[in-house]
Amino acid sequence: MPLFKRNIFGQILFFKKIIIRIFGLVSHGRYRKFNSLHIEGSEILRNLPDSNVLFISNHQTYFADVAAMFHVFNASLKGRDDNIKNVGYIWSPKLNIYFVAAGETMRSGILPKLMAYGGSVSIDRTWRSAGKNVNRQVKNSDISNIGKAIEDGWVITFPQGTTTPFRPIRRGTAHIIKTYKPIVVPIVIDGFRRSFDKKGLRIKKRNVLQSMVIKEPLNIDYENEEIADIVTKIEFSIEQHKSFLKVLSPKDAEEYLNEEEELNKKRKFWTS
Fold this sequence. Notes:
Blueprint: H1 13-27, H2 29-32, E1 36-40, H3 42-46, E2 53-57, H4 64-77, E3 97-102, H5 103-106, H6 110-117, E4 120-123, E5 128-129, E6 132-133, H7 140-152, E7 154-157, H8 171-180, E8 183-190, H9 192-195, E9 209-214, H10 227-237, H11 250-266
Parallel strand pairs: 1-9, 2-7, 2-8, 3-4, 3-7
Antiparallel strand pairs: 5-6, 8-9
Helix pairs in contact: 8-10
């Protein structure tokens, strides 16, 4: 019998728990002291099963978004109602929470590597690498690892694949939903871009009201809905459909539509 229990990716759960505790204690003040995090939907989290759940969210920083979700998820499961008061909830965290992240981001330093051990399902992006646009095939192992994580627990993903708002949804997320049939829970966040730098490590501005709204699971017909229909559902549920834009200049509108068209052309791997 092994001395330390490991998860499906071979990570030692004891070390993972220690890392989550440390990051939880260090980061707690970023959402409670320096800024204020408004939460809605804690009761939805408590009603979810232990596994086969996929959280979809808009994205504002590399790390602060995920860290906040770890706080909210664990606080809610420990009985907190729409708050993260008393960080004691992080002492015994839920260990089967995972987040999908770009491999190059999670390998970019000691801190990201430690965070990756806390729950990253690292993938190679098909559209961007080392700051340059690329066009490459999706790795089957990446899709398989996301599927394994869904079957084992809760998975957080950012279907736009970028922190830039109102970018098109990556169709791969819809294919993963059809393939693995998870419960899909939308989350809408705001205020993180204003309070943190792009990486989400440095506090850029204090006294910012951040928000996280957990919505009811999506109603999806896994067998009969088309990929395009699921993509549209995702866009609306995380409030990233272009109709949510209050003001869109002609130049921005043209850029948005052109990028959406190009991305659809590049998704040859996912064509049915």
